[in-house]
Structures are given as structure tokens and as C-alpha cells.
Specification:
By secondary structure, the chain is α/β, with parallel strands linked by helices. It is about 35% helix and about 25% strand. The protein binds 6-O-phosphono-alpha-D-glucopyranose. The site of 6-O-phosphono-alpha-D-glucopyranose has 16 residues, from α9.
Length: about 600
């Protein structure tokens, strides 16, 4: 989704902004632009398409200055076009701004301004902000931004410059993430840590309703109503290699291959083998609330919603607590019933997904204890929940989530085990679970060591237009996730279903051209899944089975098998998803798709 970077300091802003924009390419965008202040004027350059195209426009080397703004746009209001790209300027070109989020009352504001004679050049909601600031401007940019924002309803991460005050950037946040990067003699503002981490690791997280004035030698903080506030600078630990491809063709492949290590990182220091349980320091104050809770609701979107479904199964099986999984977007608007004793858990890789954040706020308003399971340290959801568990998967750049998913499921397994031990699981059982969890990284390694067979299957099916993914129990969410991976990056239509539901609809689609991927590991539902496979074969469907290693029965029945090692049932999803991640990846590569930045998708969905 849209990316923001701003720079003020002693260096030429252009290369810094361009490198920041490139680091945010993974978020998904369709156009990009820069505004540079220098020599008493603001110059704006924008282009549809990739940052490289914007660079070509800048190659003349005519634009220079020590203060500037850069933006990648992911279209919401108005098609991707040069004119709709940010930065946007006021009517005389004195003010330039970049904006993430949505101005919800823009239509009314626009109508009012058009009556006053403003000629709108774009179809965006953001342009109204430029004119609001222009109208309010009376020699003080901070004041003008505050006055303009007082008239606005919606969400924003905003950065503004003005040619009459070429020594400052004014930034503001409401519902859309914004970070200040603190340097020496220079300062940065960005929507994403990745954009500035090459320059500084000292950051200030802006909260909703806060405004920052960045100058080369310092940053001042105010509220929207101009109260002074003090903010603390936090040091972030992020290694540049973590946000680079390190020799891999794509981030997605790098992140799939990293999973043995990321699983290790998710469990590091948490497993207590002797006691047969785990230590989850982040939620220690809330363990009683969780263990005594009458109901747990998990809210999430996309891939995180799939890990929530696995979490539901784990928590109900091991901890015997009723769990409901909700799409965050549905939960937030349904006036949900939150009784006493309800704990609401948000799962989010980015910790910034607008719907999940809003769902958590709604749950808090209704009195629930809230917990976050996030990857990005210091993200909004991590900060706004009562407590939480980080998954420690490291930065995930590929839009299609892989390593964050397996780490989310791992952390949910830890949580289910901890609660289960307090309720009904014996120490012997607990010790067995811990030992199995410790084996997970090497089991994943075993799948990743030879991927030739998966490549062959990808080659065979790359031109098919439809896929069906079926699984039961713990493997049903994996069917959903496998189908999502394929459609996200290869644009092949794929659907995931509980295997038994096939008879209630999808079976009508099965013929000799329909590949059906079964996740058919040897668990309690194995025999039932075998029957479902027979039903597909009887209709000439093609069966690709993810199955347990050494399963000769499956090898005889399925057209293709992708074998995975055996472990305890509740941990199987962490293994069974790996071949499906790779299958989707290889198919997408063979089809020539842009794997890391699939069309229309965004890594972090910060608008509704
Ligand atoms: C987007 C991403 C998905 C992700 C979903 C939820 O759709 O493309 O990969 O699963 O958002 O994101 P979150 O950061 O909340 O896990």
C-alpha cells in the first residue's frame, strides 16, 4: 500500500528519497513521485509504473535540494495516472504533500471548495488536503496543517512542505503509520522502517492525533490541538541483510527458505523442556485472564486469518477454551457481543492492517482484554493491545506471506500448549510436545533440501486455469492458504474447501482438466480424505497429494505426491504448507509473474 518518505538535512534529498521508495516497493504501488524544495520553489516529478521510470525522468539531474518528499501510490480514489500520483500541490504550487490513508469526507470538502473557485486537477481525495492547507496558510505551516486536519474525517499519514518555510517538514498521523527517523544534522519521516533503516536506527513512533515538525537539527512534537508533547527515541535492531534478497531471485523464495531459522527464532528462549511447557514473557500478566477466559475471539485478515483458524483448532483441542475466528473487517462493523471473560486476539504480520487495528479498538471499547500476535516490533497493533507475543520472523518483504504464517502458527502452538498445560495436559505430554516443536526447524529443512519434484509438478500444471485445494481438520486452513498463495502470485483461480464439502458444490467442477490438491497427512481424518480422493478420481480429476513420507497407499492413489515428514497433528500445518508455498512460487515464476509484487495487492493494507 502507499509508502511515504521525507528527508530534511545536509545531503541531496533525491537519492535518499529514491532509495527509500525502492525499499518500500514491496508494499505494492502503481505510481510514484517526488517533491523537492530548493532555490525558493518546489519541483514535483511523478510517473506511473515503477520507481525506475521515475528515475529516468529524474536522470536529467535537474532536481536537487536538501528537503523533499517521496511517495509510492496504491490507487484508491482515481485510476493510477501521472496526475493522480502524489505529491499533490496547492493551486499556486507553494505547498506539496504526500498522504497515505483516505479522507472520508473529501466529496463534501471538494464540493465546498469547487464553489469557492478551486479547480481540481485530480480524482484523488488527497488534493482536498492541499487546498485546505493553502486556505489556512498564514505564514505558519504547522498551524495551517493543524487547521486543515481539524476539518477532515478519515485516516492519514501525512507529510507537507512549503516553499516559504524551506527548513521544515510537517508530518501528522491518524490511523496510518508514520515513523520519524532521527539522524545527526538530518531527519527522516517514513511510513515504513525499511525506507530509512539504511540511514538511522533511532526512531520515534507517531501516535494518532500527533503532529511532528522536522528540521535538520531537531524534531518538535505537538498534538493536533497544538499541545506540546514529549516523545522518546527508540533504537530499532534491524539488519540491512534482512531486507535484501541476499542472492535469491525473489524475496518470497528467500523467505520460504529462511523458515527453519525463523521457526527457531519464534521459539527461541521460550521452550521449557523439563516442565513440558513454554514461557511467553509478553503475556505473563494476562495468562490468568486467558486461562480463565470463557471465550477467545481471534480477529485477522488474509493469511493471518488462516493461521487464526489453525489457532482455533489448537486452542480448543489443547486448552479446551471455546474460540471463534472472525474476519476483522466483519467483526468491527457487526456490533459484536463481548461478554465478560472474553479475550480478543489480533493476528497481524504487519501490525498495521486497518481492519484488524479497528477490530481491536472496538474490542477494547467493549471491555475485552486484547492481545496481539505481530511480527513488526512497535507496530500499531503491538502497541495498542494490552499485551502480546512477537513472532520474531524478521522483516517479510514478499507480498505473499510465508515465513510469517509458519511463525504465527508456531506461536499459536506455544500459546495453546501453555494454556493446555494449565488445564488438562500432563507434564509427560507437554514434554513430548516441546520435543516435537524443537524438531520443527529440521523437519522443514528436510522439505526444503530437495524441491525438484515440486518444480516438476509446477511445470506440469502451470497452464491450468483452475485449482481446487481440499483438506480436513488442521489441514483445512492449509487448503485455504495453499489456494490463496497460488491465486495471489500466479493469478490462477484457486479455491480452498473442507474436503467433505466438495460434495456440496465443487464436485460439479471436477473433470480431467481439474487439478485437485489434497492435504492428506496421516491424522484422524485420513480414511475420510482417502474416500474424497476416490470421488475425485471417479470423475477423472487429477490428484496432487501432500502426504506423509512413506505413505504407499497415497502414492498408489494420487497422480502426484509431495511428501512431508511426520510430527504431532497440531504441528502438521507448519509442514504441510511448505510444499504449497513452493508450488505456488514455481508456478508463478514459470508463468513470468512478478512474484514479490503481484498486481493489485499490497503488503500492508492500511486502508479499509
Ligand atoms: C495483505 C497481504 C497478506 C496478509 C494480509 C493481512 O492482504 O498481502 O499477505 O496476509 O494483508 O496482513 P497482516 O499484516 O495483518 O498479517
Amino acid at each position: 500500500m502507499c509508502g511515504i518518505i521525507g528527508y530534511i538535512g545536509y545531503r541531496d534529498a533525491v537519492p535518499i528519497l529514491i532509495s527509500g521508495l525502492k525499499r518500500m516497493e514491496y508494499r505494492g504501488y502503481d505510481s510514484a513521485g517526488l517533491a523537492i524544495a530548493g532555490n525558493g520553489r518546489i519541483q514535483v516529478k511523478k510517473e506511473v509504473g515503477k520507481i525506475s521510470e521515475l528515475e529516468q525522468v529524474l536522470n536529467g539531474g535537474v532536481v536537487h535540494g536538501n528537503i523533499g518528499l517521496g511517495h509510492t501510490r496504491w490507487a484508491t480514489h482515481g485510476v493510477p495516472s501521472q496526475v493522480n500520483a502524489h505529491p499533490h500541490i496547492d493551486s499556486k504550487g507553494h505547498i506539496a504533500l504526500i498522504h497515505n490513508g483516505i479522507i472520508e469526507n473529501y466529496a463534501a470538502l471538494r464540493q465546498r471548495m469547487e464553489k469557492k473557485g478551486h479547480k481540481f486537477r485530480t480524482e484523488t481525495d488527497t488534493e482536498t488536503l492541499a487546498y485546505l492547507i493553502e486556505e489556512a496558510y498564514n505564514g505558519n505551516l504547522l498551524e495551517a496543517v493543524q487547521m486543515a486536519l481539524a476539518q477532515v474525517r478519515g485516516t492519514y499519514g501525512l507529510a507537507v512542505i512549503c516553499d516559504q518555510e524551506p527548513d521544515k517538514i510537517v508530518a501528522a498521523r491518524m490511523g496510518s503509520p508514520l515513523i520519524i527517523g532521527v539522524g545527526e544534522g538530518e531527519n527522516f519521516v517514513a511510513s515504513d522502517l525499511a525506507a530509512i533503516v539504511a540511514y538511522t536506527r533511532n526512531v520515534i513512533y507517531l501516535e494518532d492525533g500527533e503532529v511532528a515538525v522536522l528540521q535538520a537539527d531537531g524534531v518538535q512534537h505537538r498534538t493536533l490541538t497544538n499541545e506540546k508533547i514529549k516523545k522518546t527515541v527508540e533504537a530499532v535492531s534491524i539488519d540491512l541483510a534482512e531486507i535484501e534478497k541476499s542472492g535469491y531471485e525473489h524475496f518470497m523464495l528467500k523467505e520460504i527458505m529462511e523458515q527453519p531459522r525463523t521457526l527457531e527464532d519464534s521459539m527461541r528462549g521460550r521452550l521449557l523442556e523439563e516442565e513440558g511447557t513454554a514461557k511467553l514473557g509478553g503475556i505473563s500478566d494476562y495468562l490468568d485472564s486467558l486461562a480463565e477466559s470463557k471465550r477467545i475471539i481471534i480477529v485477522a485478515c488474509g493469511t493471518s486469518w488462516h493461521s487464526a483458524l489453525i489457532g482455533e483448532h489448537m486452542l480448543e483441542e489443547l486448552a479446551r477454551i471455546p474460540v471463534e475466528v472472525e474476519y476483522a473487517s466483519e467483526f468491527r462493523y457487526r456490533d459484536p457481543i463481548i461478554e465478560e471473560g472474553t479475550v480478543v486476539i489480533a493476528i497481524s504480520q504487519s501490525g498495521e492492517t486497518a481492519d484488524t487495528l479497528a477490530a481491536i479498538r472496538e474490542a477494547k471499547r467493549k471491555g475485552a482484554v486484547t492481545l496481539g500476535i505481530c511480527n513488526v516490533v512497535g507496530s500499531s497493533i503491538a502497541r495498542e493491545t494490552n499485551s502480546g507475543i512477537y513472532i520474531h520472523a524478521g522483516p517479510e518483504i514478499g507480498v505473499a506471506s510465508t515465513k510469517a504464517f509458519t511463525s504465527q502458527v508456531t506461536v499459536l502452538a506455544l500459546l495453546a500448549m501453555v494454556l493446555g498445560r494449565r488445564k488438562q495436559i500432563s507434564s509427560a505430554q507437554g514434554r513430548w510436545m516441546v520435543r516435537e516443536m524443537k524438531r520443527l526447524p529440521s523437519l522443514v529443512e528436510k522439505i526444503l533440501v530437495d524441491t525438484e519434484h515440486i518444480k516438476e509438478v509446477a511445470e506440469r500444471f502451470k497452464d491450468h486455469r483452475n485449482f481446487l485445494y481440499l483438506g480436513r481438520g488442521y489441514n483445512f486452513p492449509i487448503a485455504l492458504e495453499g489456494a490463496l498463495k497460488l491465486k495471489e502470485i500466479s493469478y490462477i483461480h484457486a479455491e480452498g474447501y473442507p474436503a467433505a464439502e466438495m460434495k456440496h458444490g465443487p464436485i460439479a467442477l471436477i473433470d480431467k482438466d481439474m487439478p485437485v490438491v489434497f492435504i492428506a497427512t496421516q491424522d484422524g481424518t485420513y480414511e475420510k480424505v482417502i474416500s474424497n480422493i476416490e470421488e475425485v478420481k471417479a470423475r477423472s480429476g487429477i490428484v496432487i497429494a501432500v502426504c506423509s513420507e512413506g505413505d504407499t497407499e497415497m502414492a498408489a492413489k494420487a497422480d502426484y505426491t509431495l511428501e512431508i515428514p511426520k510430527t504431532m497433528n497440531f504441528l502438521m500445518p507448519i509442514l504441510s504448507v511448505i510444499p504449497l508455498q513452493l508450488l505456488a512460487y514455481y508456478i508463478a515464476v514459470l508463468r513470468g509473474c512478478n512474484v514479490d509484487q503481484p498486481r493489485n495487492l499490497a503488503k500492508s493494507v492500511t486502508v479499509e
